[in-house]
Write a structure and sequence with these properties.
By secondary structure, the protein is α/β, with parallel strands linked by helices. The chain is built from ten helices and eight strands. Strands 1-7-8-6-5-2-3-4 form an eight-stranded mixed β-sheet, sandwiched between helices. Strand 2, helix 5 and strand 3 form a beta-alpha-beta unit.
Amino acid sequence: MMVDPGREDRYPVCVKMENPENVQKEFDLASSRPRSFISNIPTRIDEYEESIARLFHLKTGLDYNHAIDHIIDFVTNTGRTKIVDLLTDTAAFALRIADRKAFKGHIHSFDSNITLLERAKQRAVQLNLQKTVEFKQCFHESKLPLPDSFADAAVSVFDLQRRPLNQYFTEILRILQPAGLFIVAVLTEAKTAAPIRFWQWVCLKYIYKNSAEAETVYPDRENLIQSLFGAGFRQVIIQEMNTSTTMRPGVFSLIAATK
């Protein structure tokens, strides 16, 4: 659906909503399937990654592992080969896409946390993926240690809520090649979601004991789109992966913005 140029929100945005039945089938909320790349590693998923999976499910109602697989399908199908993973974190995205036979490129993955980076490097060696993915430390989020027009795709997974959008988007635009893609997997929450956000704040703070996440505010979709165009991106395509509910007002989406 292209936005009518006569409307106030006249941005070249294409919104695709998955068929609810397909979404339910693809994002099966049953127990996760065994992951061969994890079972081959002596140190299995630690409590940190498990807590991220629980938080993701709380916020979206979707299975974290299935969502990561879908994001990888999305990125692989773009055919881009020089990819910047903007946050290593648990390395779930970087290692899984590197392990895909259909992926023929190289991943540069960044994080400021040296412990997570060392853990990711060890996993890459265990999987013999060190030639496909490179993990590097980045001390300043506003300045990536990369030259201009370095990558043909940059990927952010469930992390945009921690970033200063305008400054961050400008930096990503800098490192992308002409016609490069910024691919974002992000949860957005409308401003009207305040009552439900309070319920989630109580759960996160007192049940999950996660005060930092309780105070996190997820971006409003319209503000996010405006920030992308304000930074200089030419086109934005949105694929919504779930629908908001009374218990989960956030919409988890895949967004592809073209430089």
